[in-house]
Amino acid sequence: MAERKVLIKYYPPNFDPDRLIKNKRPKDKQDNVRMMLPMSLRCSTCGNYLYIGTKFNMRKETCLDEDYLGIRIYRFYLKCTQCYAEVTFKTDPKNSDYIVEHGGVRNYEPWRDVQAAEEALKELKENEEEGNAMKFLENKTYDSKREMDILDALDEIKHLNQKKAQVGHEEHLNEFRKRKLEEIDREQQEEGFRRKEKGFGANGNGNGMNEEMKKEKKLMGFLIKKRVHAEENKEKKEEKKKQLCNYSDDEK
What's the angle, vertex CA 187, arms to CA 184 and CA 193, rounded to 5? Predict the structure, then answer.
């Protein structure tokens, strides 16, 4: 039984490859391809809209009489989904786009107008600078100034981002504790003023200092001592850092 997958074929000694019949492909041959529509267009026959990304069975051919800097231009044929009228479009290598030839009209796309306006402005600027050296120098100076302004704005944004990145969790927690202590102090002062206005406490003694006020006063003193102790520790750490920096500078 012969093999089904033959990897090595037999060539007789008198084999001459020049005598083989070559299948010549005609230049104007059309290929059947499955392709998505690259732009939205409207059928000129029935007015049906064909949207970008819709898949079609198209016929593709090479334009023999057209090219752009040696790049081939291809033409595609498709049929409308409603009236089956033929619509043709071709590639545009110069603008990296497509051109609808006949059978349809391309939809309005604002970005194409913007691009055309930019190209027209660029061409007008080049024409002005062509024979005028002062205009060329003026435009070059303006472009340089604009680039410098953009770089300065970018540096400022980077500086702000670095400042925000340097703030850590400890700074946020310390700030929160500081605000909390200030709120407690303010509330205690307001409570003390209110009780002084009443004149006497609940037990009837003349000083107006009941057990609750004693507890609050004790808590207030504890919080103040804690805050003072934290500030002293912070100052000591900063002094140690300065001493280490001075010591390292002296060694260098």
Answer: 140
